[in-house]
């Protein structure tokens, strides 16, 4: 039996904060603030309405719900039971429909090969022990010709300064200890894992935060946060 590709300390961290997931002033504020940007970018590439979509590492469901709101048929998977409970409860408030499951990407891929038009895996890879295994699972889950989207944090001096020192200690956008530098992933590594999983890179785009205007934007600067659009060949 293969070992579970999960770090119990990471899951515990998200479980402890889970009750604040939908508070836009909480530790999850950055996810609320970046959501319209990433949703628009994903929708622009994959035209979500009517598509079967899987959100891997969905947490409390910020992205999953928003994809349902634009007409996608969304399933969300995560290994934090508390985050999933919060996600399920929030559906009563929002009226959206998402099927939430407590299962790893690898196990779900064994049960549902080539089942989804679109797979999203955002802000999750930097929290798992073996990101290449998660990426390979996402590649197995998507249909031939389908889309897979990732986002994560780059690994360099600038990302260390911005994502850890800046976000966790100076601006206090995130609790100290949210991120572990060694788990950040360079775009070259992410695209290599994708190639190994037979996912073709379509676009790599940066996401930057301006601390003066407090506004996030998409652009060419991939030094800190970035997103990757890939497709499984048809
Ligand atoms: C920073 S949150 C991102 C949530 C969501 N993807 C978003 O961007 O709004 C990271 C999520 O990954 C989940 N996670 C961490 N390790 C995981 C694993 N091995 N399998 C599935 N989910 C995992 C956590 O429980 C948490 O919900």
UniProtKB/TrEMBL annotation:
The protein's GO terms of the molecular function aspect are: 2-polyprenyl-6-hydroxyphenol methylase activity; 3-demethylubiquinol 3-O-methyltransferase activity
EC number, as in UniProt:
2.1.1.222, 2.1.1.64
Q: Which InterPro entries match?
A: SAM-dependent_MTases_sf (IPR029063), UbiG_MeTrfase (IPR010233)
Where on the tree of life does the source sit, at the highest rank? Bacteria
Residues annotated to bind S-adenosyl-L-methionine: 38, 57, 78, 122
- Keywords annotated in UniProt: Methyltransferase, S-adenosyl-L-methionine, Transferase, Ubiquinone biosynthesis
Report TM segments.
Answer: none
Q: Which Gene3D superfamilies match?
A: Vaccinia Virus protein VP39
- CDD domains per record: AdoMet_MTases
- Which pathway is it part of? Cofactor biosynthesis; ubiquinone biosynthesis
Is Zinc found in the keyword set?
no
GO term, biological process aspect, one:
methylation
Main enzyme class? transferase
Its recorded reaction(s) are: a 3-demethylubiquinol + S-adenosyl-L-methionine = a ubiquinol + S-adenosyl-L-homocysteine + H(+); a 3-(all-trans-polyprenyl)benzene-1,2-diol + S-adenosyl-L-methionine = a 2-methoxy-6-(all-trans-polyprenyl)phenol + S-adenosyl-L-homocysteine + H(+)
What's the stated role of this polypeptide? O-methyltransferase that catalyzes the 2 O-methylation steps in the ubiquinone biosynthetic pathway.
- Name the PANTHER family for this protein: METHYLTRANSFERASE (PTHR43464), UBIQUINONE BIOSYNTHESIS O-METHYLTRANSFERASE, MITOCHONDRIAL (PTHR43464:SF19)
Q: Which family does it belong to?
A: Belongs to the methyltransferase superfamily. UbiG/COQ3 family.
State the protein's name. Ubiquinone biosynthesis O-methyltransferase
* Annotated organism of origin: Thauera mechernichensis
Q: What is this protein's gene name?
A: ubiG
């Amino acid at each position: 039996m293969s070992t579970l590709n999960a770090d119990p300390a990471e899951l515990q961290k998200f479980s402890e904060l889970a009750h604040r997931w939908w508070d836009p002033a909480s530790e999850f504020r950055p996810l609320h603030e970046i959501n319209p940007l990433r949703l628009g970018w994903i929708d622009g590439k994959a035209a979500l309405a009517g598509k079967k979509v899987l959100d891997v590492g969905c947490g409390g469901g910020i992205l999953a719900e928003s994809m349902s709101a634009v007409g996608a048929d969304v399933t969300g998977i995560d290994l934090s039971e508390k985050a999933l409970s919060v996600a399920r409860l929030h559906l009563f408030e929002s009226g959206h429909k998402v099927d939430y499951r407590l299962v790893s990407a690898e196990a779900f891929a064994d049960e549902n090969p080539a089942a989804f038009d679109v797979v999203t895996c955002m802000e999750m890879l930097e929290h798992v022990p073996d990101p290449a295994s998660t990426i390979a699972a996402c590649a197995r889950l998507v249909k031939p010709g389908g889309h897979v989207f990732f986002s994560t944090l780059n690994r360099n001096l600038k990302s260390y300064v911005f994502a850890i020192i800046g976000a966790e200690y100076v601006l206090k956008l995130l609790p100290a200890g949210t991120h572990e530098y060694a788990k950040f992933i360079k775009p070259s590594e992410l695209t290599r894992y994708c190639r190994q999983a037979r996912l073709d890179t379509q676009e790599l785009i940066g996401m930057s935060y301006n601390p003066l205007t407090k506004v996030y934007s998409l652009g060419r600067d991939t030094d800190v946060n970035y997103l990757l659009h890939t497709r499984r060949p048809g």
